[in-house]
Request: fold
Amino acid sequence: MTQTMQQAAPASRPDLRPSAVQTTAAPAVQPAAPTGFEGYKRVLAARALREGVRPQTVQNYVYSTRLNQRAIDLDKGPQNISYSNTISPFAPYRREHVTPSLIARGQDRYSRYYQHLTAMQARYGVDPAVMMAIYGHETSYGSFTGGFDLLDVLASLAYDGRRRELFESEFVGALKLLDIGVGRGRLKGSYAGATGYPQFMPTVALRLRADGDGDGYADLWNNEEDGLASIGNYLRDAGWKPNVPWGVAVQVPATLNRAAIRSTLRPQRCPRVYQRHSRWLTMREWRGLGLLPVRATLPDNELATLIEPDGPGQTAYLLTTNYRAILDYNCSNFYALSVGLLADAIARR
Reply:
């Protein structure tokens, strides 16, 4: 009987009969949305499309970008930096960036391109020696323009997030360079995205690139005249005032009351740079305080601000508004001073 009951049991449970087994298919497993850098590429692609980049450019180049951790590490800089109130002297920086080699090669190019430089000065109003000095300072006259892939580093720095808006905008700018015909292989530069002879960021390259040799095309990567003209165009856009020096070297008397000439301005941009500048006075007023030009001077009514980069008792400089145009290129007093001094040496002033 036990055996009969065991055999009958299955028939008394219709849910176990083969004809009654449910055949509904299990729901398909949806692939997980990409995360991390791969997911962030979708954000970049969407922004690029919103800002007018061609869909084919987005498809071809956004999704193939690769995370460059080296660029992120370089952008963060050395860890555990200890800041103090001690200001490094300018003299060592000057020796490294206003070298006999940079002067000689700058003078050679200055002579070679003099006719083009004269035309650029007439067009932009900018001292051609300053254009040449920036070219020399930025890339050693084109010998090193950087080997980082621009799309990779800009996407990586945007993904890092500390300055996301800046680098997203520059990433889209690099895509727009591709849209106007710049070859993909040209998009090389610094770890922070500066490219070409002038070391422009992509958005600046789009806006201020200039044709220096009259061939109808501004090539920032292979044409020195175009690179120089673009630098001149940048400085004009930054407020360069024609026929005014960037500044002049002066001797400062020991009796100068520095507290009386301290600037009260609080600029939003680069405050640590500008806090080293005095208030603005005319050249006539500076002479009245006992400052003596070392060689060249400024017109009596020209406004200037004083900087003493190596401290009291050393050579100081009276800086015009054109110095601030150089600071717009790179907001560092040592950079701007070395550009001005290299320019003077190139032009044999």
Q: What stands out?
A: Residues 1-23, 79-85 have pLDDT under 50 and may be disordered. Strands lie at 148-149, 188-189, 247-251, 281-282, 292-293, 303-307, 316-319. DSSP finds 16 helices and seven strands in the chain.
